Amino acid sequence: MSAAAAWVEPRLDVDKLSYEIFSMLENEFLFGYDDHELFLRSAAAAPAASCAVAGRVRVLSVDAAEGVITGATLARLEASLRKQSGDPDARLADFFDLAAGSGSGGVLAALLFTRGPDGRPLFSAGEALRLLAKHRRHLAFGAPRKGILGGLFSRSGGLLRRVFGNTTLRDTLKPVLIPCYDLATGAPIVFSRADAVEADGYDFRMEEVCAATCAGPAAVEVRSADGRTMIRAVGGRLAMGNPTAAAVTHVLNNRHEFPTAGGVEDLLVLSIGGAEAPKPHGKARAPLSAAELVSIASSVHADVVDQAVATAFGECRATNYVRIQGYGAVPGTTTAAAEGEGMLTERGLESVLFRERKVSERTNGEKLDLFAAELIKEQERRKQSTVPAVTMKKTSVTPFRSSSPTGFTTMASSS
């Protein structure tokens, strides 16, 4: 009998617990957990596999999807955090350590994590949702730079110029990652606060960052705040529609800002997708348009990233990784409010390696409420901890920035 065949059924001389653990891991890798009771019993029998840790870095990732729908999801999360924490002024930036966003998701990250004149985030999630709902056509992928999008991003008098003023990447309250594709170098570019703090040539105005991640099909030229770096950008949806993997990689490889993050068990990740359902295509249908191909590619990329991240988290994905994804509503078929509420009442589809996706046991709204509870637990834990979960370089300049000298500031409790 071969070594592989020996695992077909337990032999008398094989420890029963070891066999159950092996079977659990094999089933998780090949098929996913259909029997949740087996998962819980096996995890309890193997303490070494537990996901309980002293503290977790909190990551928010928002896809390049329909901005109003993802905005409604964030507004629901912020409302849940306020209710559960008892703080009516709580903002998402208070409960996350890093925000990644692509396309309209990048605009949301910028609105929610840029420091305002009072030192608090420029926008609450509800305020950001209302802004995007009012100007939703302006942020649609594929809108030309001239005309609608030009009015939104124009350097003099544009809406986002008025919103962000002269703030740059250095003015964000927490680390942010916002991607685009640079035609000049033929490679994806990720605007990062960490890079902006290190070198002036990587510091861009927030208005320009938003223009770059939403650009398409016409390229947008943006320059760093010092004018030395130029990027010919097309949208983040092409470069990195789902930035979750980039966010996780950034945290795990950045010990300066996240000194306690050694593995996925040290993370708490919320990934928010859209509600774009793929349209069926008959055999007799005409060839797909460029816009349809981009939409399909973006949807597939988002699903592949979700599946890869979920697999990397393994058994910890039940608590440490949550994906909010809607599939029922198609953007544009109803009102913005109805689309957002519809996604929250849906039971999303979860990726399982080598198998078709399965329907989640909970609605997206229920998953958000449970995740909010985990964020609050981590916030409370930090109030009792003397070890900072995050350290972040602090700089000054521009009207919205603090005038304190450059240095390191820790965020062990309130951040």
UniProtKB/TrEMBL annotation:
Return the Gene3D superfamilies for the record: Cytosolic phospholipase A2 catalytic domain
**Compositionally biased region (Polar residues):** 385-415
In which organism is this protein found? Answer: Ensete ventricosum
Span list, region Disordered:
381-415
- Keywords tagged on the record: Hydrolase, Lipid degradation, Lipid metabolism
Q: Which GO terms describe its biological process?
A: lipid catabolic process
Q: What is its EC number?
A: 3.1.1.-
Domain-related comment: The nitrogen atoms of the two glycine residues in the GGXR motif define the oxyanion hole, and stabilize the oxyanion that forms during the nucleophilic attack by the catalytic serine during substrate cleavage.
Give the family this protein belongs to, as stated in its UniProt record: Belongs to the patatin family.
Q: What class of enzyme is it?
A: hydrolase
Which CDD domains does the entry link to? Pat17_PNPLA8_PNPLA9_like
Q: What is this protein called?
A: Patatin
**A GO term, aspect molecular function:** hydrolase activity
**Domain annotation PNPLA: ranges:** 58-248
Described function: Lipolytic acyl hydrolase (LAH).
